[in-house]
Amino acid sequence: MEDQNSSSIDAAEATLLRRLRAGGPSALADVFSTYQERLHRMVSFRLDPRVRGRIDAADVLQEAYLRISRRLVDFLDQPSVSFFVWVRQQTLQVLIDMQRTQFREARSPQREIRLATPGDSAATSLSIACRLVDAIQSPSQIVSRNEALHRVREALESMNPIDREVLALRHFEQLGNAEVAQILNLSPTAASNRYVRAAGRLADIVSQVRADTSGQPKDAP
């Protein structure tokens, strides 16, 4: 069954690449529009909270589209990953560059700001922690948000870094297993196994944070 699915995906990808080669800019615009929701979700998830008010996801996607337009011919000459995975890589790089610009402008000789690159261990932990704490805590618990963030980040940092990134890609970016495998250079089976393990660890973390914020033991009903 997995081989059949892989063959279907390969055939669909080949058709897409032929369309891009033959259709030019209009084909790229059409295909990119079908990716926008997923790309917007990725940018929103990976965006550093410290510059969230200064970088708009729509601006990132617009700049990414221009970058992709300039590099499309080179990609089509020798594609090494699926088109979506490549588009995501280009969009992530645009986000990284825009964040670096913002941090460089905010930096002063008296104050050095450390930039966590989207996709690195620290940035992934922070992004996941923010999402989890916001989902778990009620407005009345907002006073303890920093403490909850600290605890969640500590728990996430104890995970295997690849497992943590698999979790981010599957659970928060909502990518498919085949896409995750390509991004992380894993076999589909290895990516799937890592996700199962990471999802179990995530459930434990959520349970513990809820117990901590409610004041009840972890196993309480």
Name the CATH class of the largest domain: Mainly Alpha
> What ranges have pLDDT less than 50 throughout 5 or more consecutive residues?
108-113, 216-221
Strand content bin: under 5%
Rg (C-alpha, Å): 20 Å
Tell the overall outline: globular
Query: How many structural domains can be distinguished in the coordinates?
Result: 2
How are the SSEs ordered, and which strands pair?
Layout: H1 2-46, H2 57-77, H3 83-106, H4 121-136, H5 145-157, H6 161-172, H7 177-184, H8 188-214
GO molecular function: sigma factor activity
Family: Belongs to the sigma-70 factor family. ECF subfamily.
Keywords: Sigma factor, Transcription, Transcription regulation
Which descriptors would you attach to this protein?
WH-like_DNA-bd_sf; RNA polymerase sigma factor; 2 domains; about 220 residues; 8 helices; mainly alpha; RNA_pol_sigma-70_dom; Arc Repressor Mutant, subunit A; sigma factor activity; about 75% helix; Rna Polymerase Sigma Factor, Chain: A; about 0% strand; sigma factor
Please, could you describe this protein's structure?
This protein is mostly helical and 221 residues long. The protein folds into two domains: 2-106, Orthogonal Bundle (Rna Polymerase Sigma Factor, Chain: A); 121-214, Winged helix-like DNA-binding domain superfamily/Winged helix DNA-binding domain (Arc Repressor Mutant, subunit A, Orthogonal Bundle). It has helices at residues 2-46, 57-77, 83-106, 121-136, 145-157, 161-172, 177-184, 188-214. Helix 2 crosses helix 3 (83-106) and helix 5 packs antiparallel against helix 8 (188-214). It is globular, with a radius of gyration of 20 Å.
